[in-house]
Write a structure and sequence with these properties.
The protein is of the alpha/beta class. The protein has helices spanning 19-30, 38-54, 69-77, 102-112, 131-141, 158-161, 178-188, 205-215, and strands at 2-3, 14-15, 59-63, 84-88, 151-155, 168-173, 192-200, 223-227, 231-235. Helix 2 (38-54) runs parallel beside helix 3 and helix 7 runs parallel beside helix 8.
């Protein structure tokens, strides 16, 4: 049986079993915990739910969590015994390299000048003095305390912290800049299981270039590419 849930989630449907996930998506949106729109958050949740139904092996990874909204949704959608690894600097956004477009550099100059605004006029997340602690508290407020829900937050640069040595069923990569996205792809994709999904928010030019560069020498017949609110790449 399928029905629509909550007034705020009219564009997506969830089975009765996942009513809680729909409520989490709505609450994350109301509390301004994600820069992604509700449709994008629903799409991410649906992939996580689908992977559970398929009983795919492997951890879930999020690279670039900002205020933690999409990571909280992934924690709600996954089974409790599946590991969720969340990687972020939990600080001001690292600057882009010269492989990114001019807009990226303009944005970083705005951030460095203290003029960046958060969602709905809130404080920009990179200016939070204790962002790591704030994200931890948000998980707890949603009843998804990392301890007890197999969730692990890893603070630092991806090149220092992102070491993948076990199967991955789903990875949400939302880290904007070319070098960061390429690092994530290099370290995560080789561990992606058959049927597993990479969700890459590649709207920044540097991010899109990193995806193109990573897959240019690979057999694209080994993957399904789909454009939704982000780029979805499924390993066949």
């Amino acid at each position: 049986m399928v029905e629509r849930f909550t007034a705020g989630i009219r564009t997506r449907v969830f089975s009765l079993k996942y009513h809680k996930v729909a409520e989490v998506i709505e609450k994350v949106t109301q509390e301004h915990l994600s820069y992604l729109g509700m449709v994008a958050l629903c799409e991410i949740a649906q992939v996580a739910i689908c992977n559970e139904r398929k009983h795919l092996e492997g951890a879930v990874i999020e690279a670039g969590c900002a205020l933690g909204g999409s990571a909280i949704i992934l924690a709600a959608a996954k089974s409790k015994d599946r590991m969720l690894l969340v990687y972020d600097v939990f600080d001001v956004h690292p600057p882009p390299s010269n492989k990114n477009g001019s807009v990226a550099h303009e944005v970083c100059e705005l951030i460095a000048a203290g003029k960046a605004q958060g969602i709905g006029g809130d404080l920009y997340y990179g200016y939070e003095k204790n962002l790591y602690d704030k994200v931890l508290q948000s998980f707890g407020r949603f009843g998804l305390e990392p301890e007890g829900n197999n969730v692990y937050l890893r603070k630092g640069l991806f090149e220092d912290t992102l070491i993948v040595q076990s199967p991955v069923s789903l990875a949400h990569i939302d880290c904007d800049w070319h070098d960061s996205v390429l690092t994530c792809l290099n370290r995560i994709e080789p561990c992606l299981v058959k049927g597993g999904t990479l969700i890459v928010n590649d709207h920044w030019s540097g991010s899109a270039k990193a995806v193109q560069r990573y897959f240019e020498n690979k057999d694209r017949n080994d993957y399904n590419f789909a454009r939704k609110t982000a780029l979805y790449i499924v390993k066949k």
